[in-house]
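[Automated response] Your request has been received and processed.

Submitted sequence:
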Amino acid sequence: MFEFDFMRHAFVGAAVVSVLAGTVGWFLMLRRQAFAAHALSHIGFSGAAGAVWLGFPPLSGMVVFSLMAGFVIGAEREGERGIPAQRDSTIGLVLAASLGLGAWFLHMSNRGSSLATTLLFGDVLGIDLRTLEALCGVAVLCLGLLAFLGRRLLFASLAPEVARARGVPARLVSVVFMAVAALACAACAEVAGALLAFSLMIGPAATALKLGLGPLAGIALSVGLALALSWGGLMLSWVTDAPVPFWIGLGAALSYALADLWRRFRSL
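Generated structure:
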């Protein structure tokens, strides 16, 4: 299968996205923001539909809409315990509005069914060199920001009240991190689609946290599992002709179930 350019592009793109998804996803799960990741990927779908209607690449619209939503979610005022008091309400309202816009963009572009299928379920085999370069640029930017924010982000996630008392700008850290998460969700949608990008972001990270690993080991396992899911999905899709997102979603659920069984076994 590596004789074909589109398969080589798919494997490289999946590797780039997996490193990004595993790292960002671990922090999302640590901060209990799984719903935010779910919403951002769906909001990105609306941006991609709007970009196609206007004649731009879908990834550009996905990035713009996801970023705007990320800033709105991250900038929300914090509650007493460092958690935005109305986070779920804000995310739900932004998600509802964006999905309505996405439906309108699809209607205006006159490419409803085929475009919706591609945006919702991804087209990893259609990644070209330009898209691959864009994915690499997004990954480098996001990982660079995470490296710069890493200690503050970890501190603010585990002990928000203490972090604020020590002078950590928790709200700024939250805004920047949600922007990083938005970019990561847009990148993941290129591989797994807007509907199942959530599985690549959250499944490996949830598995790593379920095992009770420390930050470095947890992030490493999350990245490794994301890579195994994406590459394994590509290989199984080649053999079985089943869609890649199907294998990614199934593998994410299976890995979490196995981690749960292992933890129960060790507690006996």
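Summary generated for your ticket: The CA atoms of residues 110 and 146 lie 39 Å apart. Residues 79-85 have pLDDT under 50 and may be disordered.
If you did not submit this request, please reply to this message.
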